[in-house]
Amino acid sequence: MQKPWPQHPEAEPLDILLAALATIARLDVIAALLIGSIGGVVIGAVPGVGPAVAIAILLPATFGMDPLVGLTLLLGIYGSSLYGGSIPAILINTPGTPVNALTTYDGYPMTQAGQAPRALGLAFGASFVGGMIAVIALILFSPVLARIAPMFGSREIFLAALLGCIMVVVAHRGQALAAGALLFFGIFIHTVGMEANRYTMRFTFDQPWLTQGIDLIVVVLGLFAISQAFILLTEPERAGKVPTLQGSVARSFLEVFRYKRTAATGAGCGTAMGIIPGVGEFVSQFLSYTFARNRSKTPEMFGKGAPEGLVASESANNSVPPAAMVPLLALGIPGEELTAMMLTVFYVHNVIPGPALFQNNMDFVIALYLCLAILNILALLFLLSATRPLLRVLAVPSRFLGLVILTLSFVGIYSLRNSVIDCMVAGAFGLLGVMLKRLNLPTVPIILGIVLGGIMEERLRTSLPRIRSIWDWVDRPVSQIIVALIALVLALHVWGLWKEWKGRKTHG
Amino acid sequence: MTDTPPEPHQEESRRKSVADTDQALADLLRPRHHRAEIVFALASFSVALFLASQWASQTTWFEGQRAGRQPGLWPLIAIVGMLAFGAAELVTCALRNRRARAGGDTALAEVAFWLRTAEFLGWFLAYVLIVPWTGYLPATLIFCTALAFRLGYRGGMLWLAPVMGAAVVVLFKGFLSVRIPGGAVYEVFPRAIRNFLVLYL
């Protein structure tokens, strides 16, 4: 790793900004920015691929890269795919990524009403505004985070990871039980193999290949990429037609500023929800959309082609990726599956994200945020100039896409350890992923279980010398706040369940 | 200028429209229950039971050590969690299926879909197993062409499949230098060609 170099904690903000600019002013970073932004838009525009599949496949290839280059590439795909995902959502009523589902509610009716370029322009504009507001807010917020991050010791990180686990369960309303079972399954997967403290074996069944445990990348590729390939290969062919687009998208882009309050609120919801582990895009969009509808003079138009609805959903979802980097960088805690995958890039390079990174390598953090800002600009420029030729990707036959994903998945898994067994394990997780996706059950709790389970086990062990009684868990302000948050989240969840049960009883 | 108050029927239709959107939003946040979920719940609970039965023999518990330092603690937490949530999930699925006895998707049709995907797992594993013998490029060309043929592609798309496969090999092994060893069949080639094949294809 060439950078980040250690930074003095009291360095001037301008020095940090200049150091960050120097960090990204390199050919390889610029190439990653271009490939990430354009590649992300294209991947997002193809229904059935999505950023999770693309990132899972590309992950092993980034291990050989400098961390900033690898992360920029993956972040580019993460952020830009949401821009691209709005295209099929608006034009053919099929979200390019799951996150763009809400975009279909108002985007597709606008297309049916002959306003497709306007809907696309608004979606791109809202995504851009959401993304940029989130990046700017987080750059401004970084000095505060740098001061807060050192207050997180082992106990606080353990509690924050526990909060993440609880959030990922309660955020899946109506599926909390399945999410809980899958989260604990993920924690179990983390425990398989030789544990690093006493070197004892756990659930290896005397099989040498289990000694090293089950690699996170193998699970990720199986659950996201291989399962998607299996589904595409098994389902009937979906050969899309290339839709026609009449009119200027670029002109409609500026119309987003007529809905600046909606866009700003969406960005605020996305930023706030993105920071909280386990919550993510769906909840932020829901809040933003509901808020926009409640303030609207024409709430009955929502779901029937309301421009504000489109702006609310797109601004919220695109502001989540920058915010999701906060718990990852500041505490080493990923909030969802994509940042969990990115965590492995840090681990491969022996860089442990956490308070020390925020405190000593602020230039690296700011460099990442600057990259995110540039990625937003590049994605927007690409879309405003190339939306029409990009529509051709909608014609790729779905089963052929499955073949491509399966071929690419092999590279990702086999190149890790040249292990046939890894491929078999990934294939088994692929089948599990098929079941979960078809049943609309979440896959994220498994990934977070693996990552957060590891963090909790390690942090609990390092906390133990200072823990004499249960009150030692809450003897510091940050841990008190986290415990209060845990209690609040659980209380709200139980209250919600009680209300639901009462409502069901009332309505028979 | 004053706003005209809406007519009662307009207000009613407006309220209905807002309620429809509310339902759509709720569906987005809370996907509908599938009858086949009970198969998954039963399978996952059975796995949890099996793991629980193996916990004592597959983990170590040191005498006189704090629980937090025990290697067996986290597998125990994980298994207890899987059992508790799995049992509750199983009961909930059974109740939901009973409530929605009539209509809806059948669990058997869904299980049949899962089984059909196993065919492609077979294709994938066959591909994995032939790579060490034939080498990465030939195995990829064979896999892509054969699977495209199986999927029913003829003509242009059938030709496109090996071209795509070759592009993947050249990109990942040739340019990105991912580690995939050469095939056993490369040994029959003269040394110079063999080195090239091992390094780039």
What's the quick description here?
The complex is a heterodimer of chains A (508) and B (201). Helices cover 71% and strands 1% of the residues of chain A.
Commentary on this structure:
The complex is a heterodimer of chains A (508) and B (201). Chain A is built from 21 helices and two strands. Chain A is mostly helical. Chain A has one domain. Chain A has a two-stranded antiparallel sheet. The longest helix of chain A is centred in the N-terminal third of the chain and has 33 residues, at 116-148. Chain A is globular. The N and C termini of chain A lie far apart (63 Å). Chain B has 201 residues and is mostly helical. Chain B has two domains: 8-99, no CATH class; 117-200, no CATH class. Chain B is 72% helix and 0% strand. Chain B contains seven helices and no strands. Chain B has helices at 8-29, 37-58, 73-99, 107-134, 136-150, 156-175, 191-200. The longest helix of chain B is centred in the middle third of the chain and has 28 residues, at 107-134. Chain B is extended. Classes of the chains: A mainly alpha (508), B mainly alpha (201).
